[in-house]
Amino acid sequence: MGFFDFLKVGKGHEDVPLVQRWVSTSDGLIRDSAREMQPVWIIGTNYFESWIQGVEERTNQSLGRRLAHAAAESEEYMLLKGKSYSMPKGGNPDTWNSLQNDWMSRGIGYFSSLDSSNEEKRIVVVKPAYGPICAGFIASAVETSSNIRHRFRWSESKDQSLIVSLSPDQSEVPPPRKMKTFWVDNESEKCDSELFETLEIGHNGSWAIMGNRCMVIHRDLILRFAEYCEPYLDEIHTGYDNYIFSGNSQDENLMWTAMADSIRKSTFESAPHILISKPDDWKRVTSRHLSLHGLGNVSSVDAIDSHGGVKLSLSGCFHPAISGGVLLACWERAYGRRGKLQCDINSGAVSLFLSSSVALVN
Q1: Which band of pLDDT confidence, cut at 50, 70 and 90, is reported for residue 68?
Q2: Phi and psi dihedrals of 255, rounded to 5?
Q3: What integer best gives the mean pLDDT of the chain?
Q4: Lowest mean per-residue pLDDT among 15-29, 219-233, 243-257, 319-333
Q5: Model pTM score
Q6: Whether the predicted pLDDT of 52 surpasses 90
Q7: Edge to edge, what strands does the sheet with 296-303 contain?
Q8: Domain over 6-168 is classified CATH 3.30.1380
Q9: Which one-letter DSSP state was computed for residue 288?
Q10: DSSP symbol at 307
């Protein structure tokens, strides 16, 4: 990434269309005003790649193909829900201007037609945020514009672009269903966020915050990705397993543990020193490490032991495994020892219990 790859926006960033699209709310979520206020996660592309690699290590599986199909399914669902951005029409991707703007506001990259025949269409993605996701998004756009299902594959070139190859498939696949969560998003007021104060607009559908390239991931995609992976898991092969997710099936527990522990490790390695002198300090920590990125917020904090153990009641939660893993990393940073996470969901409300992984004597 060169010095002149990004243009600093500075003051007045509120008028930039991509900033207007993402609405921060008091429950710590960020919502997509162009997609029926669906919750999103604003994350650095390198951080996301590290997280996915960690999930693959813990499950001992290659998950790129499943992530791509989850992305394709999620994108089709989102295109059907779109308001500000119309669905792609016609067979020439170079005319999909509305979708191109949609990609730009999500930091996904820039696409254009490479070549096309009756048997195969090839589309190139310049500066892809993450290969499997971009490939799935392209597949969904082609299927939506043609009303024909396609098989797709992708390859990355030396110049860091992505080539997606698609061929028609006559199989009948029903449209994606709505994904549901068993935790509840309450109605919350819009609030100000400092996230975009260091926004820099790049070329070819990219943008950065504090110099780090970011992208926007809908929770819908994460839910579909987890669902695609769960049936194939047998155990956690590496990392920690100090996680309890009450009410989950065994398959869900394995996937959520892999997701939580991977994000714990990535956050632990990147987070600065965290100071906790009293339970209420967790509100500040949660605001910085969850709310700023759309992962949630805490409504109340209660001490559960004399060694730093706390119960965090969340007013909003993007995903319990991801939000919980981030906060566990913060707990371990603050106290300098391994911790454990228990997540309870009662009547749709998420509570996270953070404490030491080993019993300590008073």
Answers
A1: very high
A2: -65, -45
A3: 91
A4: 15-29
A5: 0.94
A6: yes
A7: 243-245, 339-346, 349-356, 310-317, 296-303
A8: yes
A9: H
A10: S
- 188 burial (CB, 10 Å; 0-12 / 13-18 / 19+) is middle
Q: Kindly provide the residue ranges of all beta strands, DSSP E only, lying in the chain, ordered along the sequence.
A: 6-8, 22-24, 30-32, 38-44, 110-116, 121-126, 150-156, 162-168, 199-202, 207-209, 212-218, 243-245, 296-303, 310-317, 339-346, 349-356
Helix or strand or coil: residue 189? coil
Closest C-alpha to 231, from 211, 249, 212: 249
Q: How far apart are CA 130 and CA 245, in angstroms?
A: 29
239-356 classified as CATH 3.30.1380.20: yes
Do the domains 6-168 and 239-356 sit in the same CATH topology, yes or no?
A: yes
Dmax over Cα atoms in the chain, in whole Å? 73
pLDDT in tens, 162-178: 999 999 998 888 899 99
Token pair belonging to 302: 């209660």
Q: Residue 70: enclosing H or E segment and its boundaries?
A: helix 64-81
Token duo for residue 86: 């119309």
- Alpha carbons within 13 angstroms on the beta-carbon side of residue 282 total 30
Is 325 within 8 Å of 261 (Cβ atoms)? yes
Residue for token pair 């920690």: 240
Give the single-character DSSP code of 15: G
Residue in the block written with tokens 């839910």: 223
Q: Sheet containing 121-126: which strands, arranged edge to edge? A: 110-116, 121-126, 162-168, 150-156
User: How many Cβ atoms from other residues are within 10 Å of residue 47's Cβ?
Assistant: 18
d(CA 9, CA 252): 42
Nearest to 110 by CA among 101, 119, 118: 101
How is the chain split into domains, by residue range?
6-168, 239-356
Q: How buried is 235 (Cβ within 10 angstroms: 0-12 exposed, 13-18 middle, 19+ buried)?
A: exposed
Crossing angle for the helix pair 250-270 and 219-229, nearest 10 degrees?
130
